[in-house]
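Revision sheet: structure tokens.
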Amino acid sequence: KGAVILSLYAAAFLARSGRPLNYGIRVMMGCDEECGMHDVPYYLERNPEPIFCFTPDVDFPVSIGEKGMYAGGVFSSAPVFTSISSFAAGNASNSIPGRASCVVHAPGKSFKETKGITVTPKEDGSFLVEAQGIGGHAAHPDGKHNAIGILTDFLLDNGIGDADERQFLELLHKIHSNAYGEGLGIACTGKLLGQLTSIGGIISQEGGVVRQDMNIRYPECVSGEELKKALSKVAAAHNAQFGGGEILEPFYISPDSPAIKVLLSAYTEITGHPAEAYTMFGGTYARRFKNAVGFGPGDDYTPRPSFVASDHAPNEASYIPSLKEALKVYILALWQLQDLAAEELRGR
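Predicted:
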């Protein structure tokens, strides 16, 4: 949201400068970034593709590539949970849930004391089981601990469920045992875009049928269709199904592109910091255009107050001094992009 304000100020500055522009500048505000960015195809059906554009939704200097994204899910082929009910966690498929809970129907059962688990007896003889992990963005699983995995392993360790229930719990264990796809047999690392990540986000239960949403971000060494086949095979081995959502393949723009060099130069000129292009785990609107990158406004060089949290974490925020400096970078970059020929802007 802060970046939207910066974009408007930068465009207003150029509009009021009196300097003739070689290219028109348009500020586009998307409203579907977390849910597939389906507003971009709608836009492009009615407007020409931009020669070049950037999204202020990353860290400086410049993000020139993003992993592919695959949002699918596994679900039980039939109602399987009978002794387990109300299994729930997460509020977004692209976030690692920090809390999970379920109700276990096992009167008289005693449970092993487990870190991160709270068991509360209910009046009907069942138990509310709650798991506490460390949540965060799906693109950055290091240091996080998915509460669904904690809860699943607790149920397995305590012998909860019949054969059908435990078979599905074992599938959940494979999903949550590692955030890099190792438990599912899909781990890989690309030379350009790094390591695959795979997390389980929202889990829900309707009757005895359980669905676990998954968020997979993959490098150039594997395709979305290959992942779909592999995950369908793993799910079938546990009498479950894998349902694939939309596949967004990886993208990468050469750091030698003249437009990229302009952005890097503008950042260094304003901040005095060295600039080198990078690739990222996350997904932004840049992937929906033919010639687009991520460009700020985050900056690791500027110390942030302790209350300014990271992406998708509680108290996520922007730091105003960083935003003010970013505004200068944007204005300079937009001015300098005006001097590039159309062929250079397209990276030809």
